[in-house]
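User: My notes are a mess, but here's the protein and coenzyme A's SMILES. Can you give me a structure?
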Amino acid sequence: MSANPSPKSSSSQVQLPTDQELVLKVIPMPGDCNANGDIFGGWVMAQVDLAGSVVPARYAGGRMATVAVNEFIFKQPVRVGDILSFFSKLTRIGRTSITVKVEVYAEQFRTQGNYIKVTEASLTYVAIDENGQPREVPKPGV
Ligand SMILES: CC(C)(COP(=O)(O)OP(=O)(O)OC[C@H]1O[C@@H](n2cnc3c(N)ncnc32)[C@H](O)[C@@H]1OP(=O)(O)O)[C@@H](O)C(=O)NCCC(=O)NCCS
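Assistant: No problem, the inputs look usable. Here's the predicted complex:
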């Protein structure tokens, strides 16, 4: 992930999703770079984990833990100062687990409104009890 500014080609520009919810916006700073001065992929993964937890938290009814990153694709580099928008939607509710899709879109700080998709991921969260053991996700209305 390069920190060097580069023009983003219009061919990679996309529309924001209309079937997902905006759950987080954040701007990476120089402190989020690795030793080479590039944005650290682990920083992006941490933000995606946080963003992904927002929708499951509505259903879990308490404590939960990330059990799996099923898929994680870095499609385009993230630059220092980009505005990142994290969109998410529910893809599956199991007995004790909840799976979501997360997509991350970047826009340049000075030319806002032109988005590229930089990351997409699928994560699974498990509802856990006070002992850290899986517990059933409450049924709606129960
Ligand atoms: C989360 C945790 C309590 C689950 O315990 P477990 O004994 O693996 O639980 P189970 O095998 O009963 O699986 C629980 C649910 O997770 C799902 N699951 C387990 N492993 C999975 C995997 N690799 N991928 C997707 N889903 C998975 C199961 O399908 C099940 O879902 P369901 O009840 O909806 O069918 C345990 O693995 C744990 O504590 N992990 C560490 C969590 C953590 O620290 N996360 C932060 C990491 S930095």
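Strands lie at 13-14, 21-26, 64-74, 83-93, 97-107, 115-127.
User: Great, I'll file this with my notes.
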